[in-house]
Amino acid sequence: MGKKLFTATLGAGVMSFSVQAADLEVIHWWTSGGEQKAVTVLAEEFNKLGKDKWIDTAVALGENARSLTMQRILGGDAPGAAQFNTSRQFEELIEEGLLLDLSPVAEKEGWTDFIRPSSILNPCMKDGGIYCVPVNIHSAQWLWTNKQVFADSGVKEPHTWEEFLAAAPKIQAAGYIPLAFGGQGWQERHVFDVVLIGVTDEAFWNRLWKEKSVDAAGSEQMRKVFETFGALRQFTDTGAPGRNWNDATNMVITGKAAAQVMGDWARGEFAAAGKVAEVDYGCIPGPSQRPYLTLGGDAFIFPKSSDKSLEAAQMKLASMMLSPVIQAKFNNTKGSLPVRADVDLTVADACMKKGLALLDDPKASITPANAYITEDTNGQIQDLVSTFWNEPSMSVDSALSVFKGIIEDAE
Length: 411
Known about the structure:
Blueprint: H1 10-13, E1 23-28, H2 33-47, E2 53-58, H3 62-74, E3 81-85, H4 91-95, H5 103-109, H6 111-114, H7 118-121, E4 125-126, E5 129-130, E6 133-134, E7 138-139, E8 142-146, H8 147-153, H9 161-173, E9 177-180, H10 185-199, H11 202-209, H12 214-217, H13 220-231, H14 245-253, E10 257-261, H15 266-272, E11 281-285, E12 293-296, E13 298-301, H16 308-321, H17 324-334, H18 350-359, E14 365-366, H19 375-390, H20 396-408
Parallel strand pairs: 1-2, 1-3, 9-10, 12-14
Antiparallel strand pairs: 3-13, 4-5, 6-13, 7-12, 8-10, 8-11
Helix pairs in contact: 2-17, 8-9, 10-13, 10-19, 13-20, 19-20
Pfam families: SBP_bac_1
Subcellular location: Periplasm
Family: Belongs to the bacterial solute-binding protein 1 family.
């Protein structure tokens, strides 16, 4: 792709701030093996920059970490930085004036010139200010496969949901679990969204989430989404309820299961286990007739503080997170794509290269649902999806009716 790493050293590439030391507590939800290796990159590199110190507060599950952060900020005991998704999750904090405006460092370094695509930075921007740092590009639509399990089962890796549902009984008959599944609300919603884009298309996705079309919400296409999603239940295992996503990934890594639907962060788990992309495991964008990537990711917010030493440390961390050296090192470990194109990606594996190729295709990128709907609407949909998944007696007609009502009232 012709990308070149900046020759400047990390120290030269990060803005200089106050020399006074500060302890900067960072709340995040990166707790799996691969995630811990990635966040360690950020912590160790920040600690190398001077006397400021990264204080790590890891909280399992994103909703738990975000809830804790909100409570801490509103309670007057804010951390120095906190992880959110690139979405509308923190817009109320911006509106209430509780976040540090990063414009001074953003303008000096030209964030709007190199952060790509623009949809990644947009959630950080409001009323002329920049209130978060996007650190990566994550895509949700991936089917991760164990190649040996598919070979043993005598079936090809599927590229559509129809193909998966046709292959699953044969995988089951061969003694394997067709679909490694984590029965947690966000994971159920995750798979639902992947099924949605897999059996529809970009135009339908935008009608539903961006335009909040009630007609789309109650359509035959939406019926097929619920039918396909429900059909997957029979191909999971009884241990799925409550299972963490990385434990489901491990089922694929160890050959207990054939496949898992998960975002590209799962690649970090395969890499941590020493598995080789497209040799030991496969990565299929979709499954879908036309591969799409929903371009979301992780971002860090920095609550306002009256402590000038802490503010200087916050600005230093924000700058460091977007330096070309850190963008390459962190994202190669995390399994995600960098938010800037001018980094060294020669070490990218076969799966990361697939993601980069799709990122370069403007027709393959779509905006995630949570960029268009509020957290309240998002929560209602997640509750519906979880109820539908866990209560097979709930009919598709009932689910469609509730879903249509949610979209009708969506903001």
